[in-house]
């Protein structure tokens, strides 16, 4: 049988209305009596003896806790903080009660009206002061007043004693909270962990702070965050936030570090941390990438664009709108990055959008004109233009006899790309040329007027000729290419392909891989005009021939006639030739033309003979069928058909199906003759009748 822990007595005194017992004083009463007489050491010894005397049951455990709490608050009231700490731990006091005496800890943690359970006798022993600062001040006044001047609170000695006691109080609360860590209910753990985090942050103990935050998840984030930011412990706060999974808030804090809103030497490169976090979110959190991609690009355009361009996108309308929104934001924050992103959308992503095409063309032209503001670039490009045209003029002076055709030199584009030193201005011009040629949807007339207004239309002769072709002014474009720029290769390419100045082979030779892929793509966005009808090409070749003849260019004319003879008709060419030109200049063209006509005539004769032979064979086969069937005579019915007319009296009508079946059987056993339909020039008709 379990005996009560209360003292027992064998002497009872009965009165009329009462019963008295003579018993020994309880241990609690003895401890309280000792504390009242300030015999704290004796009270501690009594509590220790009680704890070591026997195994304690639950009631005795509560008794022991009560004694330690009473001793702790007695020492606490006397500002003997370090001595009180082990008794607070042994007494199992609710940590919220002790924390309530420290305003810097309790203010962010407690709400009005919050309560904690405790023994009634202990509540009477708690100091009446509201906080530890008032408790220290009251003890200083009680011990030193009025012996210090000018006052107890203002005297240097008492101020120094106050600092020492305040530091001891912090040491006490730290040791108590560390002892309570991981114990009690959730609210008690939250108070313990939060108060410890605040204490470590305010004391500048970063190592202990990070260790504490990494080992617990009970600290109140709303209470800890402002304290950590104020103390400059941003790295520790970010570690806590990432442990809680609040990566959005981590990005916000790193942003504050980048912009100078916060400072923490432990976070050496917050911008790289942001990039690393977003790269780990690739394919997982597109919303976060969308939110921070533009901001990061404004700080580090290279890494930011790589992040934006590596995000998977589709051709859906939602993704298109998102791309346009990103582009709009970049244009406001970082124009250079916006231009690269726009180029990526059109060239790599192949966004088939007239608005994007127009923006990219305008951006390329603006960059090109900006490069020409540099005097050294302008002089270099003028020198390239003069050098190219002078080479052509020199070749004309030292030209070979007209019967020996000279091989044309490279185009101006190839010459410029191979001789100009690699530089941002060179790449800007090549991009502008490629954009003007490959993209559609922009206002060619406006772009040309912009170039002319800048005064660089002569230096940018190739670009102006390309724009003239886009506007349909083919004769003006051909004159600019053939006569002003002295570029017969580009002029003939323009005439042969129906208006293309920059062919895909030239783009590939320039080493612009992504642009070359766009030119070579099938069905891509804004693809340049492909080869047009043979009639349109022949018209442009004839127009180029007229340009050469008007300018008196016999060598270029002869070479054009030889290379493009298939697109020209002698009937159209001969009237254009000036009377004073020697016949030898037209001999190669006429020879090829007559030879081609004769070949077409012979080819037509062969086709006619093959067709006649095939027709004869069919007639012979049909004759045998008709002979085997004989004549069929049908008499008309007395009744007329529905239209009031007699039915047909054609003896061959009944044989149609039989003849067809017979011919099919015969064709299966014999080798047929295939029809040949040769291509004949639009201007060369062959009589095959």
TrEMBL record:
Start-end of Acidic residues biased regions: 634-648
This protein's GO CC annotations: cytoplasm; membrane
Gene Ontology biological-process entries: autophagy; endosomal vesicle fusion
Bias-annotated ranges (Basic and acidic residues): 649-668, 676-689
InterPro entries according to UniProt: Vam6/VPS39/TRAP1
Region (Disordered): 634-689
PANTHER family, sorted: CNH DOMAIN CONTAINING (PTHR12894), TRANSFORMING GROWTH FACTOR-BETA RECEPTOR-ASSOCIATED PROTEIN 1 (PTHR12894:SF27)
Protein name per its UniProtKB record: Vacuolar sorting protein 39/Transforming growth factor beta receptor-associated domain-containing protein
């Amino acid at each position: 049988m379990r005996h009560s822990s209360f003292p027992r007595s064998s002497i009872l005194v009965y009165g009329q209305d009462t019963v008295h017992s003579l018993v020994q004083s309880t241990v609690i009463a003895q401890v309280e009596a000792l504390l009242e007489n300030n015999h704290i050491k004796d009270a501690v010894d009594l509590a220790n003896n009680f704890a070591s005397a026997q195994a304690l049951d639950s009631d005795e455990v509560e008794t022991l806790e009560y004694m330690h709490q009473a001793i702790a608050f007695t020492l606490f009231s006397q500002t003997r903080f370090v001595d009180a700490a082990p008794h607070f731990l042994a007494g199992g006091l609710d940590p919220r009660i002790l924390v309530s005496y420290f305003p810097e800890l309790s203010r962010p943690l407690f709400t009005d009206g919050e309560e904690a359970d405790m023994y009634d006798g202990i509540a009477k022993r708690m100091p009446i002061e509201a906080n530890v600062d008032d408790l220290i001040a009251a003890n200083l006044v009680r011990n030193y007043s009025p012996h210090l001047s000018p006052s107890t609170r203002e005297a240097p000695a008492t101020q120094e004693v106050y600092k020492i006691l305040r530091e001891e109080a912090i040491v006490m609360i730290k040791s108590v909270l560390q002892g309570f860590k991981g114990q009690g209910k959730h609210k008690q753990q939250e108070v313990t962990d939060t108060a410890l985090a605040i204490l470590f942050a305010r004391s500048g103990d970063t190592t202990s702070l990070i260790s504490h935050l990494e080992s617990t998840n009970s600290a109140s984030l709303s209470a800890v965050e402002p304290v950590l930011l104020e103390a400059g412990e941003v790295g520790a706060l970010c570690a806590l936030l990432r442990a809680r999974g609040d990566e959005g808030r981590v990005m916000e804090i790193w942003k504050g570090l980048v912009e100078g809103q916060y400072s923490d030497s432990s976070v050496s490169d917050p911008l790289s941390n942001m990039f690393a976090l977003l790269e780990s979110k690739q394919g997982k959190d597109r919303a976060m990438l969308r939110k921070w991609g533009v901001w990061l690009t404004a700080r580090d355009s290279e890494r930011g664009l790589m992040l934006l361009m590596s995000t998977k996108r589709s051709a859906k309308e939602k993704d298109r709108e998102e791309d346009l929104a990103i582009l709009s934001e970049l244009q406001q924050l970082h124009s250079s990055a916006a231009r690269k992103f726009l180029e990526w959308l059109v060239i790599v992503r192949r966004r088939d959008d007239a608005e994007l095409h127009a923006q990219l063309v305008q951006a390329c032209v603006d960059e090109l004109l900006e490069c020409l503001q540099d005097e050294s670039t302008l002089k270099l490009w003028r020198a390239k233009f003069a050098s190219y045209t002078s080479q052509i003029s020199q070749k004309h002076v030292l030209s070979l006899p007209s019967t020996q055709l000279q091989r044309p030199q490279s185009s101006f584009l190839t010459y410029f790309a191979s001789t100009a030193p690699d530089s941002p201005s060179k790449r800007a011009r090549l991009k502008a040329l490629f954009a003007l040629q490959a993209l559609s949807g922009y206002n060619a007339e406006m772009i040309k007027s912009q170039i002319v207004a800048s005064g660089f239309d002569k230096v940018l002769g190739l670009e102006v000729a390309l724009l003239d072709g886009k506007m349909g002014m083919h004769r003006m474009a051909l004159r600019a290419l053939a006569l002003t720029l002295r570029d017969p290769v580009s002029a003939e390419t323009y005439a042969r392909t129906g208006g293309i100045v920059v062919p895909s082979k030239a783009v590939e030779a320039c080493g612009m891989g992504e642009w070359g892929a766009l030119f070579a793509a099938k069905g891509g966005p804004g693809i340049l005009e492909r080869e047009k009808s043979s009639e349109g090409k022949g018209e442009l070749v004839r127009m180029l021939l007229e340009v050469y003849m008007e300018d008196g260019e016999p060598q270029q004319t002869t070479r054009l006639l030889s290379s493009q003879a298939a697109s020209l008709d002698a009937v159209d060419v001969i009237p254009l030739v000036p009377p004073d030109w020697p016949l030898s200049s037209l001999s190669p063209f006429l020879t090829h033309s007559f030879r081609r006509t004769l070949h077409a005539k012979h080819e037509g004769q062969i086709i006619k003979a093959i067709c006649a032979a095939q027709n004869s064979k069919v007639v012979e086969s049909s004759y045998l069928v008709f002979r085997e069937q004989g004549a069929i005579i049908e008499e008309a019915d007395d009744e007329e058909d529905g239209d009031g007319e007699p039915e047909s009296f054609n003896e061959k009508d009944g044989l149609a199906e039989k003849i067809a079946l017979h011919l099919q059987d015969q064709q299966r056993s014999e080798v047929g003759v295939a029809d040949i339909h040769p291509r004949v020039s639009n201007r060369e008709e062959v009589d095959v009748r």
